[in-house]
Amino acid sequence: MAKRRNILWIAVLVLSVSALSSCASYRNLSLSDYRVASLSPRGMRALDAELALVIFNPSGAFRVSDVRGIVRHRGEAVASFSSDGLSISRRSEREYSLPLSGELAPGTSLFQLMQFPGWKAEDVTVDVDAKVRLRFPGFSKKVRIRDCSLADLQKASEKNELKKKK
Questions:
Q1: Backbone dihedral angles phi then psi of residue 2, each to the nearest 5 degrees
Q2: How far is residue 161's CA from residue 164's CA, in Å, rounded to a whole number?
Q3: Amino acid 94: pLDDT
Q4: Residues 88 and 81 sit within 8 Å (Cβ to Cβ)
Q5: What confidence tens digit (pLDDT) does each residue in 68-121 have?
Q6: Are 66 and 85 in contact (CB under 8 A)?
Q7: Cβ–Cβ under 8 Å, residues 157 and 34
Q8: Residue 54 and residue 62: Cα distance in Å, rounded?
């Protein structure tokens, strides 16, 4: 009986160590490219968009859900958005499609938003809240990103590309 209990404890220890070591590789997750794949108005105050995200994931599969955020131009809220999320495959680098539903902020017109391609990347920031759930049962975390500029995203994606080429 004592031998069985020792084997059980060793198995639990091995599983715990392997689970913790696999979580460390989630830090190596990177967004290597992104673009707005489509943008279509829905009435005068709302729009639908689709982002194409190239994500490098050297670790296990996970799901991003309950995505909500605000887009700001020079500190002023321009639009809010939400999405059901997406599932990221394990050990892969591929393009994912993230559908978004957006609503213009009060005081913002659709015409102002159509000038988006001419805006400086440093002037556009995003606040995002999302829930990340690992495929391992019971592991989830709320992620909060504040004042992330498009310029920072572009720099980060360029650095990731350079790392992969080496």
A1: -65, -35
A2: 5
A3: 94
A4: no
A5: 999 999 999 999 999 999 999 999 999 999 999 999 999 888 778 777 778 888
A6: yes
A7: yes
A8: 15
